[in-house]
Write a structure and sequence with these properties.
The protein has 55 residues and is an all-beta fold. Helix content is 0%, strand content 20%. A hairpin with a 2-residue loop joins β1 and β2.
Length: 55
């Protein structure tokens, strides 16, 4: 088994140095290696909103 997971999540809130997300497949306290922006070319999530990309 691969100990590194890949998840597309919904960002709910940014508060100081914390991100609140929905849809992650991990346990509390799991290490986080990287955060990447959502790209419809790489992932496909129906009804995804990409607000920063439209600016």
């Amino acid at each position: 088994p691969n100990p590194i997971a890949f998840c597309v999540v919904e960002l709910l809130e940014v508060k100081e140095n914390r991100l609140l997300v929905r849809g992650i497949d991990a346990l509390d306290g799991s290490p986080l290696l990287d955060i990447k922006p959502y790209s419809s070319d790489l992932d496909s999530v129906p009804a995804a909103r990409i607000g920063w990309f439209k600016k």
